[in-house]
Amino acid sequence: MNLPQKEQIIISGDSHIYVVEYENPGKPTMLLVHGFPDCHKTWSKQIEEFKKDYHVIALDTRGVGKSNWYGSNEGFVLEEVIKDFAAVITTILGEHGKVHLVGHDWGSALCWRFISNPEYAKYILSYTSMSAPDPYIFAFWFRDMWRTKKMKPLFNQFRKSWYIYLFNFLPYPAVDFVFNRNILLRELIRFHGMERDDPYLYRDFKGDGYFQIGLYKENFRSIINNMEEKEPPFMPDIPIHVIIFENDGALEKEACSFCGTIYPQIEFSSLPIKHFGLHSHAHLLNPIINRFIQNNVSIDAELLVE
User: Fold this and answer.
1) Has residue 1 been placed in a domain?
2) Contact (CB, 8 A) for 280 and 194
3) Distance CA 98, CA 150 (A)
4) Which domain holds residue 275?
5) Local confidence band at 123 (pLDDT 50, 70, 90 cut-offs)
6) pLDDT at 271
7) Is residue 100 part of a domain?
8) What angle do CA 202, 131, 191 make, to 5 degrees?
């Protein structure tokens, strides 16, 4: 089925969010949220597959791709960014709209924050997470690794997070300059699993750096402060699926699987792929995403009956 692509700009406070939509009447809605250093086009192989059986929506997060953002640096804070997701859902589907949410990397971290907010959890039928746990769960994982003396995963995560320290140490202009050197980013992305002949590798990353770097710079402090919290974040009673990329060069798999010790209702899958496996191994990844959602798509039917 060759469904037409619909494009629009949705206003969300100081943000103008670019949204791509493949309307598919009567089908469940899937909302795709990209990570770093990406835009909605990173989902091209998922969109091509899923638009046949879903009403697919993909967005550029504020300040990235074709989305604009006109606020202060406070707009980088996770709790501010996720307001855009609610605006997209309610604008397209109405106040009672619901979606199957799928996130990768920073998109996954943002989606964890979205579903753990009771005000927004009502919009979610299911959630599929890849390559990032809830950033506020990291504190509990760190403490557990330290308490049980499992130092190797902890050390490996600190080693893999080198770029986070760089982003927080250097001022915005310096990091933005480095980020916008396309050739450097392309080599880094190839190292993390994208093939040289992938067309997405050659998109122009310039202009995306400032906001995406801000996610690291403005949220690092709040995540550190959260390490004093005694109770884990609220988690709604919805189906949650964590797909672990076992060879992810940016994230230890134990950091993702740990959330299962806190929230036992989470379902896990694993694939021996790298960080950009949604490009290189879409043929393995897409069926896993689809199977989980289809197992929970009956929720849509119940809502339609109501």
Assistant:
1) no
2) yes
3) 40
4) 6-305
5) very high
6) 96
7) yes
8) 40
CB 293 within 8 Å of CB 126: yes
- Please give the structure tokens belonging to residue 105: 């990397």
Domain count, the chain: 1
Q: What is the share, in percent, of the chain residues with pLDDT greater than 70?
A: 94
What is the amino acid identity at position 35? G
Q: Which residue has the higher pLDDT, 207 or 303?
A: 207
Q: Report the CATH number at residue 156.
A: 3.40.50.1820
Number of C-beta neighbours around residue 25 at 10 A: 5
pLDDT at 3: 65
Task: Flag whether pLDDT at 56 surpasses 90.
Answer: yes
How many CB atoms are closer than 10 A to CB 297? 17
In a domain, 299, yes or no: yes
Domain assignment present for 89: yes
Residues pairing with 179 in the sheet:
none
Give the model confidence (pLDDT) of 134-192 as tens digits: 888 888 888 888 888 888 888 888 888 888 888 888 888 887 777 777 788 888 899 89
* Location of structure tokens 């997060």: 61
What distance in Å separates the CA atoms of residue 271 and residue 246, rounded to the nearest whole number? 6
pLDDT, position 168: 84
192 half-sphere exposure, CB direction, 13 A CA radius = 20
- Name the average pLDDT for the chain: 89
Q: Is the dihedral of CA 211, 213, 217, 222 positive or negative?
A: positive
CA 133/CA 272 separation, integer angstroms: 18
